[in-house]
Write a structure and sequence with these properties.
Strand order of the largest sheet: 1-2
CATH class of one domain: Mainly Alpha
Oligomer: single chain
Largest sheet: 2 strands, antiparallel
Number of strands: 4
Radius of gyration: 26 Å
Structural class: mainly alpha
CATH architecture of one domain: Orthogonal Bundle
Shape: globular
Number of helices: 23
């Protein structure tokens, strides 16, 4: 209890003795102040005294170090420990103090602290060459004629929807509830290098196809993505292995990021890991700072889904503090906000409500500073004050406060969200909130509204199916709920 009190209250009051941070020497010099060997002072107290001596405000020191005034205050008061070597180095440079004053000669043994959260020590991702899949074909022992009959039929209809040539003359009606299974299967084959070798179109046509795939993602058109997204992966790899493929790494990285988001939606974690890691390698090869950061965010999402909350937090907050993002202008700030937002969701899953709200408020402050227009629309719907508030619905839900989640939902206008995909996700979060509050009829209405906006996503997404199944078995049903269940392939 005493140690917890010391962490909350910061360093104890120091009398007449001068501040000193032990570095293994008999005496230290801080600025022009000689420090006696007998007294010790924590880094935050050293920052506070030096800042005041230099006449700097919290905000001014924050500008010098890249932190908010509130975060500087937390460091000074000891609420957040300054155990991170990079944090100490930034303050030493900003205050023109020798690095030894912050004990940088002594290896840090305590956990790093970023944005008020203790995280595991991290290093840079290992640099690997951009991944190249093998030649298209099939695995040993696989008969190419024996394809999944149901999925083949679905592929016919999906191909027709996307304008691709049909492989058979007999038409078949695609069942939305099984489009997710088909999409996973097609992405898997493309990522493993299975299937027919693609004919590579001109770069302009490839860019146009990528733009259409992004529009399909925003509109939740799974039937179109079944054809376009795997085809983009195959063609992207074909380009990277022919001649100087480095110029195509960036586009392929973005394609893999889109595939990762779809695989996360469809709860296909193993392929999601593979896609996210390839995206990171390709973005690194293309020197795409935003792509590397977004890949880290998707890896953090996958780690959280696997129940690795500490690791997810470390990945997200370490990526958010990457100096390269701070040099990437407004888009870099927006990506930083997305990473902090992801960390807030992870903290919510750990049951830390106050930590979640502190991180969400930090993301909100970044969004407000950037203005109301969404930035990074291609990164899963973008970043803006409205999207942060949308995120807060789910975060409050998982932190165990559905009333706060409902209050967050009532403060936003779904019509102002930047895409149908975001509206559908928002309605799904609202439906979950209402279900937890026991408001079944309103929950079903929210699900029907989500189906209206994005039928294929509502019918195919496992999280929505799970909620529908729970409603079917937990209380009285209605014809609307039974109809939604039938369209989603959910059987009580």
């Amino acid at each position: 209890m005493q140690r917890a009190c010391r962490q909350r209250c910061g360093a104890s009051t120091v009398g007449a003795a001068q501040p000193r941070l032990s570095t293994g020497r008999g005496a230290d010099v801080v600025g022009e102040t000689h420090v006696s060997p007998g007294a010790e002072v924590k880094p935050g107290e050293l920052v506070r005294r030096t800042r005041r001596a230099k006449g700097l405000t919290l905000a001014q020191l924050g500008l010098k170090t890249g932190y908010s005034a509130a975060q500087v205050s937390r460091y000074e008061r000891g609420i957040v420990a300054m155990n991170d070597v990079d944090v100490r180095r930034r303050f030493a440079d900003a205050l023109e103090l020798p690095h030894e004053a912050f004990g940088l000669a002594v290896p840090a043994t305590r956990p790093e602290v970023r944005h008020g959260q203790a995280i595991e020590a991290t290093v840079a991702f290992p640099r690997l060459p951009a991944h190249r899949v093998g030649r298209p074909g099939w695995e040993d022992g696989e008969d190419p004629v024996r394809r999944r009959r149901l999925l083949a039929n679905l592929a016919i209809t999906a191909a027709a929807a996307a304008g691709a040539p049909l492989l058979q003359s007999r038409a078949a009606r695609a069942d939305d509830a099984q489009l997710g299974e088909l999409l996973v299967a097609e992405l898997r084959d493309a990522m493993l290098g299975l299937g027919s070798a693609p004919s590579v179109p001109p770069i302009e046509a490839l860019d146009a196809d990528f733009s259409r795939a992004r529009a399909d993602f925003d509109a939740c058109r799974y039937a179109d993505l079944v054809v376009r997204l795997p085809r983009l992966i195959r063609m992207g790899h074909a380009l990277t292995v022919s001649g100087d493929g480095s110029e195509h790494y960036g586009r392929l990285a973005q394609t893999y990021l889109m595939a990762t988001r779809m695989l996360v939606k469809l709860d296909e974690q193993q392929l999601g890991w593979m896609a996210a890691d390839r995206a990171r390698q390709l973005a690194d090869a293309a020197t795409d700072v935003l792509g590397v950061a977004e890949s880290a965010r998707q890896l953090a999402v996958l780690a959280r889904k696997a129940g690795w909350h500490d690791q997810a937090l470390s990945i997200a907050l370490t990526a958010a503090d990457d100096p390269a993002l701070r040099d990437a202008g407004r888009d870099g700030a927006a990506e930083r906000g997305l990473l902090i937002q992801s960390a807030a969701y992870t903290v919510a899953r750990r049951g830390d409500r106050s930590g979640m709200r502190e991180l969400t408020d930090e993301a909100t402050a970044i969004a407000k500073e950037l203005g109301g227009r969404p930035l990074l629309r291609g990164h899963g719907g973008g970043f803006s004050p409205l999207t942060v508030q949308l995120h807060r619905i789910s975060a409050e839900n998982h932190a165990g406060d559905p009333l706060a989640a409902l209050a967050a939902a009532n403060s936003i206008s779904l019509a102002e969200l930047p895409s149908l995909e975001r509206r559908s996700r928002g309605l799904g979060d609202i439906a979950l909130t209402l279900e937890r509050l026991g408001r079944r009829r309103e929950c079903v209405r929210a699900l029907l509204a989500a189906e209206h906006y994005a039928p294929q996503e509502t019918h195919a997404r496992p999280a929505v199916k799970s909620l529908i199944s729970s409603l079917l078995v937990s209380g009285p049903t209605s014809s609307e709920l039974r109809g939604l269940a039938a369209r989603s392939g959910v059987v009580a």
